[in-house]
## 1
Amino acid sequence: MKKAFIQTFGCQMNEHDSDRIKVLLKRENYEITDNMDEAKLILLNTCSVRENPENKVYSLIGTLKSRKQTEDDLIIGVGGCVAQQEGKNILKRNNMVDLVFGPDNIFHIGEMLAEVKAGNRVVRVAWQERKKKVQNFIPESEIKTGKVKAGKALVSITKGCDNFCSYCIVPYTRGRLVSRDHENILEECSNLINKGAVEITLLGQNVNSYGTEEYGFPELLKDVADIDGLKRLRFTSPYPNDWTNELSDLLTSHPNICNQLHLPFQAGGDNVLKAMKRDHKIKTYLEKMHYLKSINPDIALGTDLIVGFPGETEEDFECTLDVMRQLQFKQVFAYKYSPRPGTKALSLGDTVSRQDKEKRLAKVLDLHQEIAGKLLQADVGKYVSVLIEGKDLFTDNAVKGRTEANTQITIENCDAKSGDLIMAEVTQARAYSLVGKAL
Ligand code: SF4
């Protein structure tokens, strides 16, 4: 049996697509391997959100040159957002690549590989036709094939995005927003719970824009939370404009919806948000989050931030720090702005110097460390539920897992298995993680 290796770059959406591709490849009689050297099919599932992953893809392909010259049956494929964006240019740029396919084409992987084996170089980047806002972009036949890993499962509820933030390539690589029919989603979730899923994460580029006015994200969230046997429910990524106090109420009142919200605000200055075409003002973002904190003081907040967006002044940047101070985020993913081909923001130039971007990023990270450190210290002595991910390789006789707040925690002297949901007492705070003992 030939072996297949998939390297995934980027977000959870790509991770999820790679899991689907693995299921499909097994059906094509491939064995999945973690060792690229023994694979006869190498697929790179790419991300073009930032420059770095894209560069990594091309350098990884470069390392395969001598193998490609000597192994006639080695197939190299590029999928994901870079593939969607670049299409046949990838074949022109690199004669080692046999197959290029966009995210809407993964369910045709068998046909595409047959074409490659027949001696063709294949490019498939056509979109699935969007006939309606709600349509099942995952074939009915695949509803039962979702994977549960360490008690966790991912479920796509939307694909694409209609927001066109000026720095973002997603609407061009993943297409316009399409939502799956809710009955189709609920059936998939029930199947995954029957297969042992303890925690389900609902996925979408803009997850809370799901659905229609009659049946939207609040209805779906409630219906999934109410499925018998589901212990934890998460969702990612929500969009601030579509976040409502109704959703805050729902999150707070349902015990199995994790008490955590990662809501990217990206920048604190209104003129920067306007240039980003984010559609929200910082005042409304703050009002929504202050409401959530007022009804749910234990909520763990998280956010994404971009520093050094074109036109961002020191004053704008101070607004970003101010929002961080006000809302006390436990989790922050911060990045320096880098212009991406194909985005509207490219026309704005790259006006903040590299040095200033670096200084601003350092300030964000320092402030985050200070805030997160305090919040983690305040967790010491608390009882938390922990979903075990596996052995902690850095600590003897210990396992690691995630709390409801999505904080990593090491449980010492514990032999719980991956996928177990246990209660623990937090005994120690580290810089970005916790240590605890099982109860
Ligand atoms: S909402 Fe998110 S996915 Fe959609 S365009 Fe903006 S950043 Fe990109």
Note: The domain at 3-124 is CATH 3.40.50.2300 (Rossmann fold).
## 2
Amino acid sequence: MTTVKLEEELHSNTRRTRITYRGLVDGRVAAIKCYRKPLFGLVHWIRALRRGKKIRRVGGPVPPTVYAGWIAELTCFGFATEFLTGYRPMRELLRETDDRDEQIQLIKRLGECIADLHKKGIEQPDCNLTNFLMGADGQIRMVDEDDVRVHRAGLREGVALSNLSNLGARLPPGELPLVLHQAYLEAFGDAGSGIRLDVKEFESQVSEKKQQLRKKRTARDAAPDREYD
Ligand SMILES: Nc1ncnc2c1ncn2[C@@H]1O[C@H](COP(=O)(O)OP(=O)(O)O)[C@@H](O)[C@H]1O
Ligand SMILES: [Mg+2]
């Protein structure tokens, strides 16, 4: 039988129906996401499991799954992935530097990462910058697989554009969203024949999505304009 030990809470949603812990699975450090909502928790857990399998089948940049099952300590189902030791959320990395070149390098890596996801048919609709973690070697891994979609026939251009704009909307307006767009197109290379992702359309979707995010934050009483949020 697998032993699961929860050690430290990392993050939870406001209603605390989904809590992520750092913990140990048979002694191995893991990030353990617990689905606590009665009944629906089970539905979400099953969905996470199915999606997790699909993402790994197409070679998505996610940490390996170490456990999926009952968490006795919290009496709910949980999904655990290998803990990304030494990795840091892109939001933190971007917030802590004022150096323009460093910011640009980080955004370029992010653009390449999204191009790679899209090439594999993966769409991460939750483009929160805490869902992308970077290692010391510059590798980016994605977490928060609950809402991820895998398009077997590849992403349609409209979906790709909307997805990239969603991420662009988390960046301060101006140069950085354009750096993201450019890095994405370059990384897509030949695989992107057919995908143009018009820059004007991208910019217009970025500002539209920025408005939506602002509204959401105001509704939640959060500070309206936090950087990289
Ligand atoms: N495998 C992992 N290794 C290290 N940290 C992780 C891992 N998985 C998640 N985290 C951290 O926990 C946070 C919450 O996990 P996430 O799956 O994004 O939950 P939520 O749906 O609540 O946003 C992430 O933003 C990330 O900082
Ligand atoms: Mg998340």
Note: The mean pLDDT is 94.
